[in-house]
Amino acid sequence: MTTRAAVLTEIGAPRPYARSRPLTVAELELDPPGEGELLVRVEAAGVCHSDLSVVDGSRVRPVPMALGHEAAGVVVDVGPAVRDVRPGDHVVLVFVPACGSCPHCNAGTPALCAPAATANGAGTLLRGAHRLRRNGTAVHHHLGVSAFSEYAVVDRASAVVIPDDVPFPVAALFGCALLTGVGAVQHTVSVRPGESVAVFGLGGVGLAAVMGAAVAGAYPLIAVDPVAAKRDLALELGATHALHPDDVPEGLPAEAVGGVRYAVEAVGHPGALAAAYTATGRGGTTVTVGLPHPDAELRLPALSLVTEAKTLVGSYLGSAAPQRDVPRLVALWRAGRLPVERLHSASLPLERINEAMDDLADAGVVRQIILPVQR
Predict the structure, then answer these.
(1) What letter would DSSP give residue 265?
(2) Can you list the residues of the chain whose pLDDT is less than 50?
(3) How many Å apart are CA 245 and CA 264, to the nearest integer?
(4) CATH code for the domain defined by 178-316
(5) For a surface tag, which of 64, 94, 160, 367 has the fewest beta carbons within 10 Å of its beta carbon?
(6) What's the rounded Cα separation, in Å, for the pair 51 and 59?
(7) Based on the number of CB atoms within 10 Å of its own CB, is 137 exposed (0-12), middle (13-18) or buried (19 or more)?
(8) What is residue 74's predicted lDDT score, i.e. its pLDDT?
(9) 83: burial class by Cβ within 10 Å (0-12, 13-18, 19+)?
(10) Helix (H) or strand (E) holding 307
(11) Do 261 and 42 touch, CB atoms closer than 8 A?
(12) Could you give the CA distance from residue 99 to residue 167 in angstroms, rounded to a whole number?
């Protein structure tokens, strides 16, 4: 069959992307699902900084590549050996298709699955296959998903079945923003009621971390971002205080004088990470989820790691186990405790993907949703 997809053929194109158009909506050949794979009609796909990072070269991936990694859709067909998913099931697509048998998966840390990391870096599905082609030449998969497309073939491990009454623009955000942000505060570190938290960077992941910290009972819960509208939204989502980065650490509330117990950095810039570390108090932990450029370096006062007993820890996919955690997050959304729909900035057709990248790079939006199938 064929599918229309947004394909990146050149990395590092100049901005504005609406003019240079690094992403081209093209008709691709899509092979049927192989063993252990699914064919999914993509109903909604979130535009995330991890997509922008491939476009601008911060994350080096092979091209041509069909982008998009945070999505939800409907299963159309299943390949051989798939017995627990049926056509018609609604699914959230996630970007780490854990193999289930490597040392990391066996240790309960599927976000660190080694075969998945290898496949994602090579631009293949988990078992090494390419299912997308253009004029007979393979087109690489983005993080095993390639969601900026009408249809996608994914590994079964890239899909989590969800109830069919969850709106697709909401469901899509569970695949990356919510797993990563909520997971950073609830899995990478276990925030407890009354512990202080500061979140640096209020994009989709950062605001999800705010929501997760609010559910955990953090206090004070401090949201940090240069954009006033994002700070206001964070206050509506559960933050108790909101600060411009220039006002940290001097502007921390009295309950956090001396630093917070946990600081979450969701920017992907060493300056923001250094600021988060500085705002972390004695015995506290700085959690980084942002993706900096591979050449970026971080300088910290090394002595503080010992004399202040600080911890700096990375968090990938929020240290989550998607098959376990997506249903939990959906349940919290149903209960009204995770207002995920508040992260939805705009809905756009596939043809406006380059404009969406510009808006994301300008930091004026939280989560734009691409609707690949127009009805």
Answers:
(1) E
(2) none
(3) 13
(4) 3.40.50.720
(5) 64
(6) 9
(7) exposed
(8) 98
(9) exposed
(10) helix 302-307
(11) no
(12) 28
CA distance linking residue 322 with residue 308, whole number of Å: 34
Residues 21-58 pLDDT 10s? 999 999 999 999 999 999 999 999 999 999 999 999 99
| Structure tokens that stand for 119 in this block | 């496949």
Q: For residue 233, what pLDDT is reported?
A: 98
Length of the chain: 375
Which residues 6+ apart lie within 8 Å of 62 measured at CB? 122, 123, 140
Q: Which helix (H) or strand (E) holds 302?
A: helix 302-307
For the CA atoms of 85, 91, 97, 102, what is the dihedral angle to 10 degrees?
-50
CA-CA distance, 140 to 130, in Å (whole number)? 7
d(CA 248, CA 123): 40
Instruction: Indicate the residue type of 34.
Output: G
3-class secondary structure per residue, 333-359: HHCCCCCHHHHEEEEEEHHHHHHHHHH
Domain boundaries along the sequence of the chain = 2-165+339-371, 178-316
Per residue in 306-332, pLDDT (tens digit) is 999 999 999 999 999 999 999 999 999
Please give the pLDDT value at position 175: 98
Record: fold of 2-165+339-371: Quinone Oxidoreductase; Chain A, domain 1 (3.90.180)
